[in-house]
Amino acid sequence: MGVLGGGSRTRVAVLPAAHPAVRRIIGLDGAEQVELVPVRPGVVKGHTPAEAVTPAELDPDSDASGEIHRYADPLRDVDLVHVHFGYDYLEPESVDGVVEHLETAGVPFVLTVHDIVYPTHEDELPHRDHTGTLVEAASAVITLTEVAAHELWVRWGVEPVVVPHPRLLDEDEVSSAIRAGKHLRGPGDPVVVGVLLERMGENIDGPELLDQLAPVAHGRRGAHLRIVVEAQAWRDACGEDREAGGHHLVAELAAEGGWESVRLVRYESLDLGSVLPEFAALDVCVLPYRFATHSTWLELCRDLGVAPVFPSVGFLRDQWFDRCDPGEHSGEVYDPRDPSAVAVAVRAALEDPRAVPPRVAGADPAAVVATHARIYDEAAGG
261 and 224 in contact (C-beta within 8 Å)? Predict the structure, then answer.
C-alpha cells in the first residue's frame, strides 16, 4: 500500500479519469483510505490512442493528469486498477494484453460493468467479448442493478457486488442549476420537453423520433422543444456549415411540429456544467435509446427532478424504479416498436407530474464510499 501522511492508503488507478461521472460514481475524492490515480485503459500498457486522450491528461500541471503521463510507468506504486468504461476502443488482443500486463505486474483490478451491450454501436459482439475477458479476470466485479448482476452471472458465472448509482450532483450544484433553469424557462407557465441525442450514435433514435413528438405540441400553448446533443457529434454531422444546418433543422421542426420554440442545446462530453441549467429547465426529458443497459442521464434526471421518458430496453426501468412503486413516481416507459408510443408517454408525463423516485439504501455517498473502500481493500489483499 502507498503511504501518505503517515497513514496507509490504497492507490487505485481509475480508468478512464476524464469522464465526468467516474469520480462522482466512486465518490472517493475525500476518502481517507483511498487515493485515486487517473489513467486511461491504454496507458496500462504504456500507450494511449490519440483519440482517447484529452490535452489535460498529458498536461503535468492539470488535475486530470494525476501522476500518470504518457510515457511514465502507470503501474508504479499502484495497488490496484478500477476499470469503468472506455475500453471499447481497444482491439480484442489489446484487452488480453492489458489483462496479461496487469497479471505480470501483480496488480489486481476491479471492474464496474455499466454496459453489458455495446453502448453506441449495434454490433455488440466486440464489446461483449471485451467485457467477458475483463469480467473473468477481475478480482471483483461491480454493477448498478440486481437484474444486471443476474445477467452477468448467467453470461459469465460471476457474482457481482451491486452498488446503486449515487447522485451525480451535490446540493449546491442542484440549487444553482435549478435557479438558472427557472430563468431559461421564461415567464408564464411553459411546457419544456427535451430530447437527448447524446452523440447521435446507432443507439439513439434521431430525426424519426423528433417527428413522432409532434402530437405533444398540437393543441398545447407554450410548448417548447430542446434538442440536447454532444457538441462534437453535432459538428461532425453538420460539417463546416454546422450553424446553418442546425438552423435548418430547428426551423423545420418549429414549422411542422407546432412547437412555440425549438432550440439546440450543445454540450461538451467532458464538461456537463454548462448543460445543467438547460436540463433543470425541462419538465420532461426523452431518452430515445434503441438499446442500452444503464444510463447516467437517468441519474441526472433524478438529481434535477426532471421526469424521464425512456424505452423498454435494457435495465433502464429497473435502474429508475429500483425498489419503488412506479405508480407513485415520475418516469414513463414506452414501447420503441410503436411509433405513437413516445408522444403518448410524454403527454402522460406532462399531464400527471409526480416526484422522481428516491435513491435506494446503499446509494448515499457514505455507503458508496464504504463499499468501494471495502472492495478495494479485499482486492488489494488488505
Answer: yes
Query: At residue 173, what is the residue type?
Result: E
Burial class of residue 360, CB neighbours in 10 A (0-12, 13-18, 19+): middle
- What does the DSSP 8-state code read for residue 245? H
Contacts (Cβ under 8 Å, ≥6 apart) of 142: 110, 111, 112, 113, 160, 161, 162, 163, 375
- C-alpha closest to that of 358 among 331, 322, 312, 333: 322
Query: Dmax over Cα atoms in the chain, in whole Å?
Result: 68
- Give dist(CA 106, CA 113) in Å, integer: 22
Q: How far, in Å, CA of 232 to CA of 131, rounded?
A: 27
Q: Which of 23, 319, 20, 276 is nearest to 165 (CA)?
A: 319
User: Helix (H, G, I), strand (E, B), or coil: what is residue 302?
Assistant: helix
C-alpha cell at 205: 433514435
Measured on CA atoms in the order 231, 237, 239, 242, is the torsion positive or negative?
negative
CB 116 within 8 A of CB 144: no
Phi-psi label, residue 136: left if phi above 0, alpha if psi -120 to 50, beta otherwise:
alpha
Q: Give me the DSSP letters along 136-156.
A: HH-SEEEESSHHHHHHHHHHH
**pLDDT, mean of each 10-residue run, the chain (382 residues):** 54 69 58 68 45 47 43 68 68 71 85 79 66 90 95 95 89 94 87 90 80 89 90 74 57 73 83 89 96 92 97 95 92 95 97 94 83 89 71
